[in-house]
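Task 17 of the worksheet. Students: predict the tertiary structure of the chain below and write it out as structure tokens. Keep your answer in the requested format; marks are given for formatting as well as content.
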Amino acid sequence: MAMTMPFKLANSLDIDRFSIGDSVKFLLVLDERKTFATNFTLLGKGTIPSSVTDLDDEYRPLDIGEIFDDVSFLDFDSSIVSISDTDGKFRFISYIFTRCPMPNMCPAVIAKNQYLAQVFSENPDIEFILISFDYVYDTPTIIKSTYGGLLEANPNLKIYSSFGHLNDIFTLGGQSFVSFWGVDENDIGHTLRSVLLDPYRRLLQAYEGTDWHTEAAERDIRNIMQAYQ
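Model answer:
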């Protein structure tokens, strides 16, 4: 699976000398207020194949209108829950892990889902689902101890563990066009993407990274739900 991860660049950084396919190394700066990449060094020049053939398997990213496979995870009580359990509802699915050190990544996704869950708290036709792709560390107990209070305040917000459900998280993540790596080595990297599914598990809309605005997502959800009435 191709792996990409978005980074903000230092303001003074000029990357025009690099091309797609180049191999580079850089310094990732983390602090409490912002995260950015700087000090890029070219390691080697690369080329991009003229054509790429997608693998026709369960990990293939889906196009708008295609149907997600049914997969299963664990809730707070270690009970198995399947995506199909909420067929008949719209679902807004995002991916996180509890130990994410970058405040503008997983914590930002959680905050945006919390906002949307509160906005649609009176609407029984949609659920907001956060799934941890850290299938080693993020057990149901860890997730409950970390986010238990958040779910009590937002009944339509769900957070699931992929512990013991490796193929399920690779299937759903791959079909969502989300990549993650380094879980077994305890050195996690990942992309971010949220997807909106219709009551039949069809992909309706995707929101890249964390730069999407909650107001725009709210408007999209309202318009789409109204169109289904």
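Marker's comment: The radius of gyration is 18 Å. The chain is about 25% helix and 25% strand.
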